[in-house]
Design brief:
Length: 181
């Protein structure tokens, strides 16, 4: 719940900041690949949008999109790393063409380029494939995860109880068999 509250407080300020004309030193209409300088293709998927370079396979993904794909924890950790990063990237942001910063993640081991003002991350093709899938971490799926865990616990309890009852019945039969002799 804390992560969700932080997102709802933080995102309006970011959106307002990006709307200001002074934010973009060189505003561009279409996102552009930082490597190939070719326009990125907008891809719609169930979780939202991402921007794909058809030449190199790289992807520009926003933090809110990452949140839906990889989960709250991963997205929050990456956002924090982007905000704290000090090493400038040699690549421009696909959205605002400003310099991105380099972020190093330890778990999973990744080096990514991110844009602070745009809250965007650039993934080269192989790096995107190593991104964790964390849908169980999102706040929307926590109730279903809790239900699943609870069901697994109940199932184990039922199996244990059945095993004890079966052992008791076997004991009783064995005692009855001894008495009949």
């Amino acid at each position: 719940m804390e992560i969700h509250q932080a997102w709802t407080r933080f995102m309006p300020a970011v959106i307002e900041h990006c709307r200001r004309p002074s934010h973009h030193s060189n505003p561009i209409a279409v996102p552009t690949c930082p490597f190939c300088a070719k326009p990125l293709e907008t891809i719609r998927q169930r979780e939202g949008l991402f921007y794909l370079c058809s030449s190199c396979g790289g992807r520009a993904v926003t933090i809110p999109q990452l949140r839906r794909v990889a989960g709250d924890r991963f997205a929050a950790k990456l956002l924090r790393l982007i905000q704290l990063a000090r090493r400038p990237s040699k690549w421009p942001c696909p959205f605002c063409s400003g310099r991105m910063v380099v972020c190093n993640l330890a778990e999973p081991l990744m080096e990514l380029d991110g844009c602070r003002p745009c809250n965007a991350v650039w993934f080269d093709a192989p790096t995107y494939e190593t991104m964790p899938e964390g849908s169980a971490e999102t706040t929307n799926s926590l109730p279903s995860l809790a239900t699943e865990v609870f069901a697994e616990i109940r199932l184990k309890e039922m199996k244990d109880r059945e095993a004890r009852e079966k052992a008791e019945r076997k004991k009783v039969r064995k005692k009855r068999g001894l008495r009949d002799l």
